[in-house]
Structure prediction request, 422 residues.
Amino acid sequence: MSDYQFIKSQDEKVYEALAGEVLRQQTGVELIPSENYASRAVREANGSILTNKYSEGYPGKRYYGGQEFTDVIETLAIERAKELFGCGFANVQPHAGAPANIATYFALLEPGDTIMGMDLSHGGHLTHGHPVTYITKIFNFVRYKMKNPDTGEIDYEDMLKVAKETKPKVIMAGFSAYSRELDYEQFVKIGREVGAVVIGDVAHIAGLIAGGALKNPFDAGFDVLLTTTHKTLRGPRGGMILTREDADIAKKINKEVFPGFQGGPIMSNIAGKAVAFKEALQPSFKDYATQVIKNAQAMAQVFKENEVRLLCGGTDNHLVLADVYGSLGITGQEAEVSLDEVGITLNKNMIADDPRSPMDPSGIRFGTPAMTTRGMKEAQAIKLSEIMLETLQNKDDAQEKAKIKRRVEELCLEHPIPEVFN
Ligand code: DSN
Prediction:
């Protein structure tokens, strides 16, 4: 990773924290399923002099002059995004995932309209209608859940019944803590039956779709896909909105992203997206996406063999959600802290119908996008899972944890962050 020597000469305090973070990322194992290592080229574009430029509008239609190069870059990002996901339109300007989601709601709905989304406690996202969000004051959200948290099966019959009663204008498929593939055909069927726009929030799995390791919801007829670009897609931190074929929807979304919802696009970030999309179009990205899933499945298997309850009973994607409180009597918070102490980073997470609270829930969520970028495969995934279980069994034994930390560091030394991502 960059040694940030120029920052050091200008700002010692920021430098020290950055240098600490470099070491943390190199010597620990990153298992937060929404994180990854962006390549050096992506980071260089994202930190480029394009940060100096204002570019309100879209390529060929800007409000300020001097756009001959920004237009090239944004057009490259758009065209590559369309190729990656096989769709007609892409807006690469959303600053992050939540603004992409909210701008899309505003583009397609009137205040008071209904949106159907997955319940947060069953794997959905805050922006799919959690009461703490401001958008729930504007739109009416109805939620669906898993029929059986131990298999991950969604209750599509109930969804259809509720959709007929509540007439949502948008149906959202997507999640941030759910480990099975959704039945996209069912969403489209329900959406068509009630006249709703069918939207997939694929923020977590975009890279797995782009890499051909998971199904593409557009193939089932989804109208719009919303995503972040920094998770499995391995780009810079940001958002994106894709429209399959409806030019009217795409036009409304463009108008809502700018000028409706955001100001000037972050052109350096869009350059980072363009570079990341080129990387994701390479054949090697397919191998990466496939390996991410193999690694997650190998980890899930070890937890299952050790009788730890997994939500959804296992995983089809990059993440695993484990009920550590129910299985081991350790809370999600205790598990997160203990694992952090040995250099393994993941997050505590609510499980479906969790009797505990969000700050100290029953579960942990972990995933394999970052460790797979490091070149780790199933053997390391198994070893890591065993180390995790050992850590949890020894959570109050400082000496044992110090020994485990050294083993984690050794594993990281054996699998350094590859040059291109470092
Ligand atoms: N914070 C992201 C995640 O970890 O899933 C979602 O917003």
